[in-house]
Amino acid sequence: MDRFILSLAAALFVLFSTPLWAMELVMAERDGCAYCARWNAEIAPIYPKTPEGVFAPLRRMDISERPEDIEFVSRPFLTPTFVLVDAGKEIGRIEGYGGDEMFWAMLTVLLRDHTDFDIDALNPTN
Q1: Burial state string for 74-99 with b = 16 or more CB within 10 A and e = fewer than 16
Q2: For the domain that residue 43 is a member of, what is the CATH number?
Q3: In this model, does residue 98 exceed pLDDT 90?
Q4: 30 vs 61: CA distance, rounded Å
Q5: Which of 3, 42, 93, 117 is found 20 to 30 A from 60 (Cα to Cα)?
Q6: Single pTM value for the model
Q7: pLDDT, tens digit, 9 for 90 and up, residues 77-93
Q8: What are the angstrom distances between the C-alpha of 109 and each of 11, 77, 93?
């Protein structure tokens, strides 16, 4: 019985210490950032409803934070910076925000080049 409880505890530890989403889009932002505010107005309300947002859920952080669970290639210094993270490791980034069309185009390239995301598989009309 003790062995079972120990095994169960170990399994629960692994389950709950691993993020639910291995893939995420981390937004480094700061208070007073006009481009962050623009992104928040133009993209934030729809992002979680998009295939991209489902595939790589948004996680926000202040640019001054140093999350221990993310291995950045380099420290973000512009706001906003969008870092595509897979299992805690940076695999790509978008620095700055130049409008909705540019954001979606750059995110599409990141996802296409660094993940198995396939928008066409999610869009049966194509």
Answers
A1: eebeebbbbbbbeeeebbbbbeebee
A2: 3.40.30.10
A3: yes
A4: 8
A5: 117
A6: 0.79
A7: 999 999 999 999 999 99
A8: 37, 22, 10
